[in-house]
TrEMBL record:
This is TetR/AcrR family transcriptional regulator. Residues 11-71 form the HTH tetR-type domain. Transmembrane segments: none annotated. Residues 34-53 bind DNA. It comes from Mesorhizobium ciceri. Keywords: DNA-binding, Transcription, Transcription regulation.
Length: 198
């Protein structure tokens, strides 16, 4: 996942800016937030802020990149852990997909921030690709452990991973409540688990 890197951790000043900006975006929304607001939240001058970021859109993209990178890493870690396939997959989906957005969704300006997803198309595409890669590898590993030939069933690990991600996207559009999302995600994971049984 080369385009989404957690570059924020390399520079403590960037981390401070991104953390402060996230709080301000959640409090005021994107359109009402100014560079002055962000500079104040980061406890720095506006000219110092402009040395690292050209505008608030640049900062918003950096926040998105940081969050999406951490999401993919959380999924990878959960999927590589111990435990039954369904538990590892549910942990990965919860950490990388449902919990990741809970603060944004709960914010009074969450809808505005989520609407900006279209301006992050390249980052979201890389994020989905990274998640799909890790989920596909976990599905492939489980199929091999169970002695299931997915190709003989007209399936592939990547196809199942894509189906899961498509289902989760649809679920998030229909179900706003995180607990309801977890229940729907668990049902999708159970269907895939059944496909992986000999």
């Amino acid at each position: 996942m080369n385009q989404i890197e957690d570059t924020a951790t390399a520079d403590p000043k960037r981390v401070r800016i991104l953390d402060g900006a996230m709080k301000v975006f959640l409090a005021y929304g994107f359109s009402r937030t100014t560079m002055d607001d962000i500079a104040r939240a980061a406890d720095m001058s506006r000219p110092a802020l402009y040395l690292l970021f050209k505008n608030k859109t640049d900062i918003f993209r950096a926040i998105a990149m940081m969050i999406l990178s951490r999401s993919v890493e959380a999924a990878r870690f959960a999927l590589s852990g111990d435990g039954p396939f369904t538990e590892r997959m549910m942990r990965a989906i919860d950490e990388a997909f449902i919990s990741m957005m809970s603060a944004v969704v709960a914010s009074p300006h969450g809808a505005e921030l989520l609407d900006m997803k279209s301006s992050l198309g390249d980052l979201v595409g890389c994020w989905r690709g990274g998640l799909g890669q890790h989920i596909g590898a976990a599905i492939e590993g489980e199929a091999a452990r169970n002695g299931v030939d997915l190709a003989a069933r007209g399936l592939s690990a990547q196809l199942l991973a894509d189906m899961l991600l498509d289902g989760l996207e649809g679920m998030k559009a229909r179900i706003r409540d995180p607990e309801g999302q977890r229940q729907a995600a668990a049902a999708l994971i159970r269907v895939i688990d059944l496909t992986l049984k000999a």
